[in-house]
Every structure is written in structure tokens, then in C-alpha cells.
Amino acid sequence: MTARQAFWRGYLDCAPFILIVVPYSMLFGVVARDAGLDILQTMSMSILVIAGASQFTALALLQDQAPVFIALFAALAVNLRMAMYSAALVPHLGHARLGTRALMAYLMVDQAFAVAVKTYEDRPEMTPDTKVAYYFGAMMLICPIWYACTLLGAVLGQAIPESWSLDFAVPICFIALTAPLLRSLSHVVAALTSCAMAIAFAWVPWSLGLFIAAIIAMIVGAQTELFLRRRKACAS
Fold it and tell me: Quick one: signal sequence residues (predicted)?
């Protein structure tokens, strides 16, 4: 596979996510305008952050009259998943030049990461150059659509009928991203724990219960992995 072929393969592999990214990004544009942001502010946030989950989190907290530092902290905490994404991609893309890696970091989105890391694991014969090309192919489809549809949602605003129910895209997006990555018992345990704890701590103000749930889920997942490794070692 040449670098050119890898680029277009990444582009096509991310194509199914268009069905989710279009309503997801339009919904952000609508919600941002409802929250009081003008079109310039909405687009500035979308272009600078490019992370739907943290953008929605910040808007929701600001609408709930949460302090600005709480909104910023929450958005940063949600975006910490990008640090884990980066760590997972280092073995595949760490060889790239600093400027290239900086551009990769800026363009990183959940959908393209999920597709790229799965492809790298399934196709270990890919060369370093084709891995970089594949990554950019995946990103180049998602990001422009995110910008364009955010603008469309911000411009149309209330003209979009409620019957379209654009909010369906948010949970479906993360289910589609997460489900293929649940490859071990520890992954499943962590996912189920996060769901249970998110419900248990739903009473915590400003949605901070989600972060408590995430921390508990990570600890439980890690302990499950350690338990399985110890049991395997004892069995051998």
C-alpha cells in the first residue's frame, strides 16, 4: 500500500461516521446559539477545540450558571481522553516530525482515532509513512464536515425542526466509538462500572459526577486487568 492509497483508505474508512458527525455538529451549532453565543463565537469554539463532548459540557455548565473555572475544568477533564489517545498512537506515529505531530494533535477527533488505532492493530504490515498518510486521510474527512455543519446549525438555529431530534447523534456517536474497543473483560468491567457510577453520582451538581464515575471506572478496570494477569501467572 502506497501513502496515497493509505490516505484514501483512511478517508473512506471514516465515511460511515458522516451519518453521525453531520447531526452532531449541527446540534452543537444550534445549542451554542441557544446558549447566547453569536456565530463568530460558536465557530471560534468549534475550530479551536474540535471536541464535541467538551464543547457540549462547557456550554451546559455555563447555561447552568456554573462558575467559569468549573466549566473550563470540566471541558479540560473531558478532553483528557485525547492524552490517552495520543499515548496509544505513539508506537505508530511517534516517528513523525514535531510539526507533523502538532498538526495531528490539533486534528485528532474521536472517530478518526478509533478507526486509525483499530487499523494499525489489524494491519501491522503498514509502514510508518502509510500510517501517517492513513491518519491524515481519516482526519481530513471528519474535520471539514464538523466545521461546515456547525456553521449550518448556527445559521439555521431555530429553523431546524425539533422533530429532527438531532440529539440522537451524541449517544450513538460514543456507542459506535466505544463498542468496537471493548476487547477484554477489563474493558467491559470498566465500561459497566462507569455507567453504574454515572447513574449513582447523577445528583452531584454541574455534572461533576461524571468525572467521579470516570475515575472509579479507571481504577476498577486497572484492578481487573491486574487480577486477570495474576491469575494467568498463577495458572502457568
Answer: none
Predicted local confidence at residue 183, as pLDDT: 67
Closest CA to 75 of 63, 59, 97: 59
Query: Is 139 exposed, middle or buried (CB count within 10 Å of its CB: 0-12, 13-18, 19+)?
Result: buried
Q: Which residue ranges in the chain fall short of pLDDT 50?
A: none
- Kindly give, in sequence order, each residue whose CB lies less than 8 Å from that of residue 1, ignoring residues fewer than 6 positions away: 9, 126, 130
Residues 23, 46, 54, 139, CA torsion sign: positive
- State how far the Cα of 12 lies from the Cα of 8, in Å rounded to an integer: 6
What pLDDT was estimated at residue 182? 67
- CA torsion 176-100-137-113 (nearest 10°) is -10
pTM as predicted: 0.68
Extents of the domains making up the chain: 3-181, 184-236
Cα 55 from Cα 157, distance rounded (Å): 17
Helix axes 52-63 and 68-79, enclosed angle (nearest 10): 160
